[in-house]
Amino acid sequence: MHRSVRIGVLSLLAVSLAVPVLAQSSADVYKSKCAMCHGADGKGDTPAGKAMKAIPFQAPDVVKASNAELFAATKDGKGKMPAFGSKLSDSQIRDLVAYIRTLQK
Ligand code: HEC
């Protein structure tokens, strides 16, 4: 009786810890690696973003750019934008491009 209650509590805990870990990834990677320049909202309205002239993700040219172009800019760098190809996997970069698309809405 006592033991099954404890197992129930533990498995509940495991589920509630696992769900945010799965859901967080691209938003968290964005926050830790991209937001200092691009801003949490993608507008580039940060000191570093302004100094480097980061283009808002909402700008028409960026909205029109293909996923492949945004992927290449992130992986290989572009102008002052650093390359992330050695720090992030291709699937992480794909997820980040999808995350950027949500900031453009
Ligand atoms: C050190 C500042 C900095 C960081 C960190 C940074 N960027 Fe950028 N990024 C820039 C700048 C500046 C540009 C504009 C480059 C240009 O067009 O000359 C840019 C451009 C881009 C572009 C191309 C679209 C555009 O605006 O021309 C994408 C996509 C992009 N960044 C994604 C990311 C992602 C994803 C991350 C995090 C993994 C990230 N950036 C981190 C500075 C940064």
Structural commentary:
The protein has 105 residues and is mostly helical. The protein has a single domain (24-103), classed as Cytochrome Bc1 Complex, Chain D, domain 2 (Orthogonal Bundle). The protein has six helices and no strands. The longest helix is centred in the first third of the chain and has 32 residues, at 2-33. It has helices spanning 2-33, 35-38, 47-52, 60-64, 67-76, 90-103. Helix 1 packs across helix 6 (90-103) and helix 5 crosses helix 6. The protein binds heme C (HEC).
- Portion in helices: 55-70%
Question: Please, how many helices?
Answer: 6
Q: How many structural units, i.e. domains?
A: 1
What is the gyration radius calculated from CA atoms? 18 Å
CATH superfamily descriptor = Cytochrome c-like domain
| CATH topology term | Cytochrome Bc1 Complex, Chain D, domain 2
Largest sheet: none
TL;DR of this structure?
The protein is 68% helix and 0% strand. By secondary structure, the protein is an all-alpha fold.
Entry keywords:
105 residues; elongated; binds heme C; 68% helix
Question: How are the elements arranged and paired?
Answer:
Layout: H1 2-33, H2 35-38, H3 47-52, H4 60-64, H5 67-76, H6 90-103
